[in-house]
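Good morning C.,

I know you're traveling, so I'll keep this short. The sequence:
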Amino acid sequence: MVSSLPHPTTSAGRDGLAALLARPAKAVVALDFDGTLAEIVPDPERARAHPGAVEALAALAPEVASVAVVTGRPAGVAVRYGGFAGVPGLEHLVVLGHYGAERWDARSGTVRAAAPHPGVASVRAELPGFLDRAGAWPGVWIEEKGRAVAVHTRRALDPERAFEALKGPLGDLATHHGLVLEPGRMVLELRPPGMDKGVALAEYVREVGAGSVLYAGDDLGDLPAFAAVEKLRSDGTPGLLVCSGSTEVPELADRADLAVRGPAGVVAFLAELARAVRDEA
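The tokens, ready to paste straight into the viewer:
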């Protein structure tokens, strides 16, 4: 193993990394987008992949079975903000958007999608008035995500207080319309049930027939993907869990095999991993 490659702190993580290096052509490398490949920014529409991310992914992707970006964003938006389309070396990249409800494949350059859930349209229409009745929270705003709707509190005068005050009422609203509430880093997303990053990741790993899996994430929405990797490990498929470090989500850091310093750390790790894979060949 190359000495500059960070060492996992757990035996399961070390086994996962060793399996990936031993048989990279059977490995799936899966990554969240916001907070993992891109910095968290006040306006999600301004999020872009960290400088060097595409280069690192393009170096790694030809060496592994697949690289998958697993995100709550629409697949096409993640592709655009990531700059993933038409990049040599990224032919094995897929983007599983809306927690797997949408899929973009680099080879075809097209998005496949399931039918939308009717509850999203109902919530979209009701949410502005609902927030007005919920109380005065200046700075709270709604993000339209196509197959989901998100309420952001990061711009509020007291983001954490607004987040906690709205979590219960928005949970009730989601339930009323047959949706689920997904809390994140100062964001509350109302989306259809039955799909999360864990389901999307597990289904894709089975589809590929992966011999090992790496997953990197930063937020509460990544916990199901962590759980999916832990289940795969218990069933005999080695895996490595990477936390794109954040003091906002200690639950993720506590379960990770390896923590790095945000998207810059993720990019540096991916670049080192690509070099280590080539060195092992």
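Safe travels,
E.
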